[in-house]
Amino acid sequence: MGSGNELCSQEFDLDAKWLVDPKQILVGPRIGEGAHGKVHKGKYKDQNVAIKIIRKGETPEEITKTEARFAREVAMLSKVQHKNLAKFIGACKEPIMVIVTELLSGGTLRKYLLSIRPRCLDFSEAVGFALDIARAMDCLHSHGIIHRDLKPENLILTADHKTVKLADFGLAREESVTEMMTAETGTYRWMAPELYSTVTLRNGEKKHYNHKVDVYSFGIVFWELIQNKLPFEGMSNLQAAYAAAFKNLRPSAENLPADLAPIVTSCWKEDPNDRPNFNQIIQMLLKCLSTIPQPEYVPPPTMHPPDNAVLPPESPGTSSLMATTRRGTGEVMNSELGEKPTGFFSCFAGNCY
């Protein structure tokens, strides 16, 4: 058996710099699961990463579709880089299909919104997150890529909860005006109405649509950011999609801030041609942010010791001691002891997947 890179290069076409060596992948606890696979926290070459293990399928037809989807996702991930897209590190197809990306420890946007309920995000925070998402989508669209599954579960926060990044390209496709694309994609509650119909729900049915389906989904997500409620509350996913497609029903815009309501409602217009593109959305959001008054800076008071204060003598050993302990508690840092993190296990040493 050859190296991991040889295994990968025989199976699908990917630049050598993106090929990961499966022998250096360590898989830890599961942190997420979707329709097509599981995501684990792990390590690759001593770097903390997220490892997506693709579910291959049972039948030959399922396996063929999965492999095609995997190859498409990897190709697109290697094509685009942006600060608001989860950073792609590499992929491998054998012994199992794996995609490795940066580890974002802030959790999904869905979990974050749930954690702060019933409170809503601050105006600037909601607009800031919307800007992150719009910039990521603008990057994808500029490369001719439609995400097709934009929703809070596919938006991940950084550890400080200050930035949102788009992840999971499992349903993304390259846009083509000459090709018809399968319409049974995305999650119904956030799905553009042109994607949903009783005809196109049949497996394999195709229907023409374009990148404006992502704009509709963005409008629903932006509504959630502002209201911190589930859109079409009280309806099942299918009921919500049916109501949006055939009754032109949308979440209520009554309580949206006056500056944001026009942006949200323009994104979910029934005619895709009437929806703005993401570059226009970014400009509208930036204009909204510029109207927020900035808090006045108050410098901290300068502290002066009394003229007759007696200062303690400086200890020459304190600095070196503090450098090797955590916050001066006497706890020695792991780096000083040469300790390595534990709790991970090799995915390919056993049947962890």
UniProtKB/TrEMBL annotation:
- UniProt entry keywords in alphabetical sequence: ATP-binding, Kinase, Nucleotide-binding, Serine/threonine-protein kinase, Transferase
Keyword Coiled coil tagged: no
> Membrane-spanning residues where?
none
Which residue ranges does the record assign to the Protein kinase domain? 25-297
Question: So where does ATP get bound?
Answer: K56
Under the heading PANTHER family, the entry gives:
PROTEIN KINASE LIKE PROTEIN, SERINE/THREONINE-PROTEIN KINASE TNNI3K-RELATED
**Similarity field:** Belongs to the protein kinase superfamily.
Q: What is this protein called?
A: Serine/threonine-protein kinase STY13-like isoform X1
